Amino acid sequence: MHLYGLQKMTLLDFPGHVACTVFLNACDCRCPFCHNFELIDGTAPALMSEEEFFGFLEKRHGLLDGVAITGGEPCLHADLPAFMEKIRACGFAVKLDTNGFHPEMLSRILEENLADYIAMDIKNSPEKYALTCGLDRVDMKPIEESVSLLLGGNVEYEFRTTVVREMHDESDFKKIGKWICGAKRYFLQKFTDRDTVPFGNLSAPTRGELEKYAFLVSNYVNFVALRGVD
Ligand code: SF4
Questions:
Q1: How far apart are CA 164 and CA 184, in angstroms?
Q2: 198 pLDDT higher than 90
Q3: What is the pLDDT of residue 179?
Q4: Best label site of 12, 201, 209, 216, fewest CB within 10 Å?
Q5: What does the pLDDT read at residue 102?
Q6: Which atom of ligand 1 lies at the shortest distance from residue 37's CA?
Q7: 123: nearest Cα among 28, 59, 1
């Protein structure tokens, strides 16, 4: 496993933990609002080896208690379970971010109890999934399977949507709510523009719009909250 980015400390990425965040490369989506687009085609140079990372981690005992693994799409990496196991063996909790395209990997991680927390993207209502992922088409079956795995599993999890004004409207959140009905947690994350976002024609919804969307989902989900809103 090679790492393509490392945030040495975060209080935001892993709920309840002081963590570092590691970025893995490659992704099977091309979301136009992606903050890490330089990682996703797999051409960016690696930042550090696994050995170097564990050298860093060993020195963080007492300062950090968790590692958040993000990307890219971490589940594309066959050695992800071994990497997670190794982090756990060092005494750190593990959080995994995923786009939900790989239920076979997610299932293995759940069965082997390798994660303390999983955050899965719900990109949009099923009809708009391909558009929101920047793809021509998307097979929804694996994504639906990943949702079911989290809904029926024992691991702590959240679903979350990055909300972009040009991509989401009220009807999407009614559909998302019905789809993930009974979920423990759902977050609406306000899109923020950055230099690394590939498309310059996207904008953020207002706080009022986000609150309206949150209310629609709260008819179906136990806990709904906003992120990235002042
Ligand atoms: S799934 Fe995540 S990493 Fe992949 S393109 Fe979309 S936002 Fe970027």
A1: 23
A2: no
A3: 98
A4: 201
A5: 98
A6: 8
A7: 28
Q: The domain that contains 95 carries what CATH number?
A: 3.20.20.70
d(CA 136, CA 126): 14
Residues in contact with ligand 1 (CB, 6 Å cut-off): 27, 29-31, 34, 36, 40, 71-73, 99
Amino acid at 137: R
Domain span at residue 147 reads: 2-162
Closest ligand 1 atom, residue 28 Cα: 4
Kindly report, residue by residue over 13-47, the tens digit of the pLDDT. 999 999 999 999 999 999 999 988 888 887 788 99
How far does the chain reach from its first CA to its final CA, in angstroms? Answer: 37
Count: domains in the chain: 1
The atom number, within ligand 1, closest to the CA of 36 reads 8
| 110: three-class secondary structure by DSSP | helix
Based on C-alpha coordinates, what's the Rg of the chain?
17
Question: Best of 29, 75, 128, 164 to mutate for ligand 1, by most ligand atoms within 8 A of CB?
Answer: 29
